[in-house]
Amino acid sequence: MKVLSGFKEKAEELSTKIRALIEGIEEDELPTNEGLSYLNVKHHTILNYMINLIYYLMLKSSGRSIKEEPVVPQLLRCKTLLEKIQPLDHKLKYQIEKMLRMAILQQSDDTAFEESKLVHKANLAHFAKPNDNNQENEEGDPENTLYVPPKRVSVFYEDKQTKADREEKRKMEKMKRSRMVELLKEQYSDAPLSVSSTTEVAESKRKERAKHEEMKKYEEDNMTRLVMSKKQKGNMRASGRTGLPDVLSELESFSDLAVLSMKDKKGP
């Protein structure tokens, strides 16, 4: 009821505005020959939608059936068009508002219109920062200002590490991973004694062999082959080599210990 109570006042206000627009168009006060075709199509669609909506409300208020009336498909068509052009409205909003402001300034003051056009003009001074050479040329001869590219000299990359240094570093890393060096560190270290790593390795190898024997027995009893992962295969190969860590096998590369003595002579 609140909406219906103010409907008559809004209708009279809208009629007054429409009459003023019609009079302005008839007296050529409002130019309509030039404009954006997009806005023309949009306004015609909105006008068509409003006309059909008013006709639909009239049918509903009079109690007539709208089943055979073409007003419903027309309303759906206009509504769909207005919803589809919303992304386009968002993209063209800035350009349309700018053109409207320029049109208003052109009608009010020509000076303000010319200044507004300069606002949107690109300033070439903002694209690149002049260097010192260009500034000197501008001060000496403003007419002959040539672009002088900055001087960049290529620098040769010098590797401070020689091949011998890299080889020595590689041997040092290899010796750090050596089992013999670990045993020497355990023997002369001040750290508290714990279970020997040799004993731990031997126990681990024993468990691996026992597990392998159990798998082998299961395969023979059930006449089937168990599928092992890559990790299990690697552990089996490692356990099959020897039960204890073969420390003496590292004596083949015992000459690498000379790197340690050379490093002690050089000092830190």
From TrEMBL:
Residues 202-223 have a biased composition (Basic and acidic residues). This is Sas10 C-terminal domain-containing protein. It comes from Arcella intermedia. One of its GO terms (cellular component) is small-subunit processome. It comes from the Eukaryota. Pfam families: Sas10_Utp3. Coiled coil: none annotated. GO terms for biological process: maturation of SSU-rRNA from tricistronic rRNA transcript (SSU-rRNA, 5.8S rRNA, LSU-rRNA). Residues 128-147, 194-224 are annotated as: Disordered.
